[in-house]
Amino acid sequence: MAVVNKLRRKLLKSIAMVTSLATSHSFAALLKPAAPTIHISTLQSFLDVLIPRDSTPSASDINIDQKLIKKASGIDNYHQLLVEGTQWLNVQSLKYWRLPFHELSDDKKEKLVDAAFNAPVGTLPQVFMTWVRDDAMQLYYSDPRSWPGLAISTPPQPNGYPTAHLKPRDSL
Q: Whole domain around residue 94: which residue ranges?
């Protein structure tokens, strides 16, 4: 009987200890799964496929990734779309080339992006590509640092195109 009482006391002591640990804030934080994160290097590489450096800066040159993340923070499910979209790019990249997306050559990145754009409507890759492309273009061309090399020096709105009524010039 003494052995049973010792086992019972040990069991109750263990239950009490686990209960006190489970109710402590630090232990609860350890059990809580980490929030999924956006693969920043993947997002930057993807944006640079959409908007590469030429006579104008690339998307990453003017921090479009950070602007996009900031925009996403105010829109339901947009942050999650960025998390899952960058994860999808990496999973596909690892599956086919055993490298994360940001380490692929430009032609392989373009193949993967092209496949995503051609995915069925409403699928994760297609929705991710479409939303990010549209927002990235808006964010990019609203930044004056993207204008050098273009035939504009101010945004078209609110002033419009003041010379639109004139005959087109032969050259700019």
A: 41-49+63-145
